[in-house]
Amino acid sequence: MSAPSAVPGGLAGHLDGFVRAVREAGIPVGISQAVDAAEILTVVDLLEREQLRHGLAAVLLQRASQRPTYDVLFDLWWPLSDRPADASSPDGSGEETGGEPGDDDGSTLDLPDGHGDGRDLSERMREELARLLLEGDDEALRRFARQAVDQLGRAPASPSGQSYFGYRVMRALSPDTLVAQLLAGLLGDGGRGGLAEQVARQTVRERLAAFRAAVDAEVRRRAAAERGRERVARSAVRPLAEQVDFLRAQQSDLAELRRAVAPLARRLAVKLSARRRMGRQGRLDFRKTVRASLGTGGVPVVTHHRPRKVHKPELVVLCDVSGSVAGFSHFTLMLTQALREHFSGVRAFAFVDATDEVTRFFRPGADVAGAIARIGREADVVAFDGHSDYGNALEVFADRWPTAVGPRTSLLVLGDGRTNYRQPGLPVLADLVRRARSAHWLNPEPRRLWGSGDSAADRYGEVIDMVECRNATQLADFVTTL
């Protein structure tokens, strides 16, 4: 393409490094998207940083959930500068040259008059911050954040170099204590209450969040200048929701995981259903085949088969809901709920050291959080001490529901296989696998830990297909290769 060839070599190399960093962060970027990103550099004003940010995001991202990761990387590779980016700089980065990370490049703001110690400086900068938050000038707020990090965020020098910390800035300025002052300034004489105050409060929250983000971005910029962008990116970039280990997932990750799990559950249901329709359609119909061969000199070129009865898809899900896999159990129940909505015959069973059927809690459209709470209150999953006992749980399942698993059933076990050194119940599991049409076990622990300590995962893997499933990405791989 002729347009991307107009990009200067240094700038093109810098863009290539940025695209590689985006890809390494888990955001899939293909060759065509990289070419489109080069095209963006030829049509946007490179001096308009936000225009460049949005332009590259438009061609590199596929989902809104990828935007926070992208923004962190963009701030590292295209840092805020008070001077035009120099595409011909030695490293082609377009970053500032000729100054240390702490330099303000003559961009200091005019602070209110005052003299004295550091406490007086904090108070003057706090007054300036209140004024900028009231005005809502995003560019001025970013420049102020840069100066605040330089003057308030600097930690005592260490042998490894100068360090800056955002928490020092926040502690000195205490922006959260300005809310009342900002509300008074935004509302004026209009008084409190009603829609006007709600809008004003939302505006204050957004501007305070923007200031915090600007401080964090400036701290990362200075750290990148000292230690290198790649090193800072590895520690600063938060994993995407689909890369977060289920055992370590936070509350903020669950909503995104729920969105990722729903389409995977639908694909899993289709895959398991398709298995019943694959292959030749029933037994050979000899009479029709012979009759058809008369037209080809008695050679049965085309064979005919009796229609094969396609059974209604059936799925049995066994979920470990013990405390040791709390994060994973939340995910497994989300998966169960999603399968219930896309699979016609799902029976769900939860267990700790006993087993109970929990299908009734997962009606289509039911709230997952509510279902989990009801399982904790109503389900009979604890028989003794509430610690995982796979052997007893499997025996209870086999005794109470002997016909749940049959030749038409796909069995899906979800758990870490840690038995607390109790009997693993291998004969019972082997019998269930033998009776099932297909059987798989999704384990949230890394494969290297299987068989360590009280884990019986390696022994379970001898009788059932054991699959490492630590995050949504690995779940997608499992569904794809099923």
Automatic annotation (TrEMBL):
Region (Disordered): 84-120
Region forming the signal peptide: none
Superkingdom assignment: Bacteria
One Pfam family here: VWA_CoxE
Matches recorded under InterPro entries: UCP010256 (IPR011195), Uncharacterised_CoxE (IPR008912), vWFA_dom_sf (IPR036465)
Composition skew (Acidic residues), residue ranges: 93-107
Protein name (database record): VWA containing CoxE family protein
Organism: Geodermatophilus obscurus
